[in-house]
User: Fold this.
Amino acid sequence: MKKKKKFLSSVEPYLWLLPSMLLMAIFILVPIFEVFRISLSQVTRSGLIKGFTGLDNFEKVLKGSTFSMVLQNTLVWTVVVVGLSTLIGFILALVLNNQFRGRKLARAVVVFPWATSLIIQAGVWKFIIDTDYGALNTLLIRLGILQSAANWTPTPAAYFAWECWVGIFVTIPFVTFCVLSGLQSIDSSFYEAATVDGATFWQQLFRITLPLVKPSLTVSTVLNIIYVFNSFPIIWTITKGDPANRTDTLVTYLYKLAFYKGKSGEAAAVSVIGFLILCACASVYMVVSLRREGNDE
Assistant:
């Protein structure tokens, strides 16, 4: 009887986890396996899998002239959006962590871009920068700063820069509140002791704030890399990757391959490449962060 109870108590946690594990297997592992299978198969335009072709789809993608440009766009997009949103979000979190009149209102304003759909945000910014009837030109003309409407997107690079700005704008709130949660968990006695010892603001920032808020920064950065790398609505809403794939990222590019050109095998190969890049980046970042935390201890 005791052995039975002991067995049931040891199995019980896994029984509670079983539904979640089944859901993860059905909705995460199975689709990943299916994408890998399609990437290694010959697929017709109607989506029928004809047979195993090995790495042919990967060779077609890698030998194409478009892929290297799209990959470069994706890396620039991810580094710029994640880097600048993390920096600005961290600064905003430091500001919002202080006591001042209107702090609750300021926090509500900061969270607004994050609470709104990405498609809506991208559509609004597309309207703002429009040359003919955009709100930015209208405002600057009425203020007397411009005499006539300016073209804010004269080149694909300019369009891509605006897309990066929209990505930063909608990502800042997530970083801000991740860091803010870490800041509010820091005991004020650390800062009081540092102030008594004559520590400056920068010394407190680098010796107290950053080490203690590092776990929150690690979580927000890793999640941001995944979200931004896979972000589709902003670029698709503003430019659809045009002209001539100059503003495409891997996600919009594989969407075109699959649904515009009917090349599901190559699209799956692009998806697998993106998946492997993300796994590598997240793994390296986590390992480096954990090693630093271990050394600090």
